[in-house]
Model the fold of this input.
Amino acid sequence: MIVIGCDHAAVNLKKAIIEHLKEQNIAYLDMGTDGEACDYPDIAEKVCNKIISGEAEKGILVCGTGVGMSIAANKIKGIRAAVCNDCFSTRYTRKHNNANVLCMGERVIGTGLALELVDIFIETEFEGGRHQRRVDKISALEK
Ligand code: RB5
Done:
């Protein structure tokens, strides 16, 4: 299950991502906004709570830049959110950081690239091994 959310600055990108997930029969939960102005930390919290509760495995948060969403999401224990604008970072934030939230900015990247990043984020597995030790150290910082 993928959980997705956006603020008013990224409604069109969120719609495109949802269509893309539907085409691939990937189950998703949409936590808003449907278009009304909102504060991105509220949406980040709703999306991340679905991951922490185990209802969703990964999340996608989009706003104008992706940055505000990532800052908010990373305040939540157990969340590793990465703002990505390129394929390499997206692939390696899965392989090495075990990122569980992908953040992107509708005002930063085009829809075609964003959909490619979504696919990479969903398909790429965490490598574990020495990277698990490092991710564990990130978790230790939360205490
Ligand atoms: C909203 O105007 C904008 O600040 C927000 O979408 C995001 O870019 C924040 O990081």
Summary: The mean pLDDT is 98. The pocket of D-ribose is lined by residues 7, 9, 40, 63-65, 67-68 (CB under 6 Å).
